[in-house]
Amino acid sequence: MGMTFHSLLFRDIPPGNLAEEAPPCLSDLNLDLVIDAITEPQERHHLKPCFYTPLQDTRDILYRQEVMRDLEDQNLRGAIKTFTDRLTTVKRYLALGEKLDFEYHRKGWFLEGALLYCEILTHLGRRLDDLAPRSQGLRAFGEYLASLRASSRFQSLAREAREVKEGLSRVRYCIVLQDGKFKVKRYEGEEDYSREVEKTFEKFRQREVEEDRLTPSRVPGTSHIEAKILEFVSRLYPQPFAALDEFWSKHAGFLDETVLNFEREVQFYLAYLDFMAPLKARGLPFCYPQVSSGDREEEVRNGFDIALASSRETETIVLNHYSLRGPERVLVVTGPNQGGKTTFARMFGQIHYLASLGLPVPGTRARLSLPDGIFTHFEKEETIHDLRGKLEDDLLRIHQMLSRASSRSIFIVNEIFSSTTFQDALFLSREIMEKILEMDAMGVWVTFIDELSSMSEKVVSMVATVSPQDPAIRTFKIVRAPARGLAHALSLAKKHRLTYEDILERIGQ
């Protein structure tokens, strides 16, 4: 029994409307920039809602991962890209009907669109048979395509399009020019002067222009004189033009909605593969994460900030690891400023979000928990239009996050409460951390408060490291280690001879 094809993005019947607005976390994670870069080349397909709607079922994630693995095959991806490009041409032919003024000119392009449509569906069906994709989505679409091609409606469309085209191709006529007037008559074996005219004017051609019916070099149009000639020809040969009229009436709206939906949905995968390609060419790794809705243990090897990597094409990107084992839930990241802490936090959020879309993620290996939401709190500058103080704004934003979160949520908190005193920041941070740990949520907390890193067995301390030879040099590596903010400060003081002993020595005591 064959599979039923509903969608290339969802295992079953797709849900209702996809999200038109970006989730709030995307701007903090810089994923809004990534999604803009991915979707901009395919803007006409309106792909952003696909990237704004994370999945909540691991089976849907596996479904997409299988399709993506298939499309990594260059032969299969090439066949589908050829199909989507030519289907775009079909739609362009049909759209000419909205612009052209003369009846048979419009109907002629309609016929060309139908011929090309039948050709590309037949070719794609054969290629899918030959390449035998493994994913459930592409196999189901291949079966749907086979049944569509075997249907009486498609067979009739293909057969009648060929017959009408052949009938029109047999039409031969002459144009007689005399005294500024013309008339049209049937061709009766007269000599064809058009070749002589072309030969005469050949030397005036500036360059050779190749005509390609798939990509016309200019928008086809016709003058009123050409239209009148066509009208006269249709009177001389009424039968083939009557067949064209009947074909137009019978097969209006021949484009199959499922095929059109496939064309749009497959762009989701193709666009991401195109985005990944230059990153992979630079040696940056991607992998298919193992995603679970129940297992809370996590591990990522050689992950990186995808937004940073794509915006800095010539720079070396530092790869980082992390793991959460047993009861561990929250990574507390401390260390020097400009040491890569915020980049690490963004990486954590990006990897979870991309995994929830069913896409490959940065890294050589990833084992992740599927979140029901990602809540981010990054520092925002105060504005004159905001009547709240910064501390009040921080507390309100955190309260809203906590009220909407669950044990399956992820929190990414970056340098909160920097506007208040250390003691107040420590007190408020502990209160919020306790609530996150009580609900058993997961996350990353970037902070200057070392004390948070040892609050609970659910907390893992990670530190942004510096060069052992020169503590002023950042390595941008984030490692599992006890917080050592004072040790780092001491090393900097020694480097610049600002320790207590150094100062006493310098003032002569």
Protein architecture, described:
This protein has 509 residues and is of the alpha/beta class. It folds into two domains: 30-168 and 253-265, no CATH class; 282-506, P-loop containing nucleotide triphosphate hydrolases (Rossmann fold, 3-Layer(aba) Sandwich), CATH 3.40.50.300. It has 18 helices and 14 strands. Mean pLDDT is 88; it is low at 209-219. Helix 8 runs antiparallel to helix 11 (238-250) and helix 10 (224-236) packs across helix 11 (238-250). A hairpin with a 2-residue loop joins strand 1 (173-178) and strand 2 (181-186). It starts with 24 loop residues before the first helix and ends with a helix. The chain has helices at residues 25-29, 31-39, 48-51, 58-71, 74-95, 103-131, 136-150, 152-169, 194-200, 224-236, 238-250, 257-281, 306-311, 341-356, 390-404, 422-438, 485-495, 500-506; strands spanning 173-178, 181-186, 286-287, 290-292, 298-303, 320-324, 330-334, 361-362, 365-369, 373-377, 409-414, 442-446, 459-466, 474-480. The strands form four sheets. A six-stranded mixed sheet has the order 10-11-12-7-13-14, sandwiched between helices.
Features:
509 residues, Rossmann fold, 2 domains, six-stranded mixed β-sheet, 14 strands
Short description:
The protein has about 500 residues and is an alpha/beta fold.
Q: How are the elements arranged and paired?
A:
Blueprint: H1 25-29, H2 31-39, H3 48-51, H4 58-71, H5 74-95, H6 103-131, H7 136-150, H8 152-169, E1 173-178, E2 181-186, H9 194-200, H10 224-236, H11 238-250, H12 257-281, E3 286-287, E4 290-292, E5 298-303, H13 306-311, E6 320-324, E7 330-334, H14 341-356, E8 361-362, E9 365-369, E10 373-377, H15 390-404, E11 409-414, H16 422-438, E12 442-446, E13 459-466, E14 474-480, H17 485-495, H18 500-506
Parallel strand pairs: 4-9, 7-12, 7-13, 10-11, 11-12
Antiparallel strand pairs: 1-2, 3-8, 5-6, 5-9, 13-14
Helix pairs in contact: 5-6, 6-7, 6-8, 6-11, 8-11, 10-11
